[in-house]
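Sample intake sheet
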Amino acid sequence: MDSSTHDELLEQLIALVHRGDEEGLQQLCLENRGQIEREFRGWKTVPPAWREDRDSLDRYVAGLLGIARFFADGLGRPELLDHLMGRDRSEGDASPLERWHEGLESAQTSLDEGRHRDAATLLQNIVDETDGVRGSWVDEYLPVTLGMLGGAYFNAGLVERASDPTSRALAMCRETGDEDGIVAYLTNLHEIRRYLGESEDAATLARALAERLESSDPNRAQRMQTRARIIEEGEPSLRVVVLPPDGSGPYELDQLDLLAPLEQGADSLLGGLRFAFERNRVTLGGCAHKLETGREFATHGRLAEAVASFEEAAQLDPWAPDPPYLRGLALAELGRFDEALLAYDRVEELAPGWHRVAEDRALVAAIAAGELESDALNIVREIEDGPRMPRAKIAVAHGALERFPALARLHFALGRAHWSVDEHEEARAAWRTALETADNASIRTRALAELGATALDSDEGVRDLHGAIEEDGELVASAMARVLLYLRPKATH
């Protein structure tokens, strides 16, 4: 039998173990003892043909165990059994399980530090090394490893490579009935398909996830059903959703009937409602890490380094609007106005209406054209977002308006400052002037929304809110106008 091939000998041995033919197993092992001892370590890696179903795999593992036990008990050679059980390592060496666990910890550290490609390399090595190895601890750790690998590829920007390990993790969790794992990997696979623009699959996965969550988390299940509907209808690159204070939602603007009535005596007209952007793709983790680095540089005045970080973020996630937006802000600060305009144009391509990009672009374009002095940019930002108290901002705004009387953003910021110190008539006058001097739809929408929100009990206020919706130049202000008109009969004045 020394001439038997690897596959023939192994199949015969496994068949004898499966039949319980101890005499036949003994004879075949004795005839091929040398070959078995040479090749046994290689047999520990399960051939693909034996991995097609669980019964074949169990039969293969039981066969190896039967061979190893015969060598240990019948021939006094425990080496095969020790190797199969992981007992042949040197003293102090980590067991396969210990090495696996250490590898997962190292990968998690890399993920936490934003080194997603490093984590992906480490996790892929673990998956490759454990290919074909089975056991209860493998069933526990392999889905986690595959899920982490899919997440690492995804957040590293290698989105196409994220599908396979994530699908494998999902399949294993379905096989073992791991409900938490099923939900986690359905979620991940949905976001992968959504990011790739595979709308049909993304919607199907969203509905499958909703079905899984129907009993355990009905609010999230409803959100996933809504997302599936929106994807099928053609999900926009950017929209605004409503966040109720009770943690339910978010709700779409066509779901305002799901909002609870405002409580009497609410602190604000919106009763704690907030608004948030919703994109058709999540921001990849590697991009988010570079964005945070860039923000740190910008905070400390290291603008050139901030620009470089934002460029790296854009390379990692070319669909994310934040990298070109923040890069545009930093470039404008550096006086590189033409480059800033190109960055703002990119934002509008990716996510029309992102923050105040239209207003920033209009301001920078006026500076680049010589219509405004360059310090207008810093003055506007100081009044809008600076740390000064409202009275100081009012004084700065009045001084700036002597130089830039037609700059609508200054008038708008002045209105906000007046309102914060209860000077309501002055605030409304400033917003009305902002509306009259506005050179873009974004600032007009914001001014109309503020005018309408502060005069809800008047026909003029209602007209202003409708005007904000028609302008639709700034998404949050337009959404606020819609919600206020819907809640108006219940709003406190």
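Comment: The mean pLDDT is 90. The CA atoms of residues 203 and 231 lie 6 Å apart.
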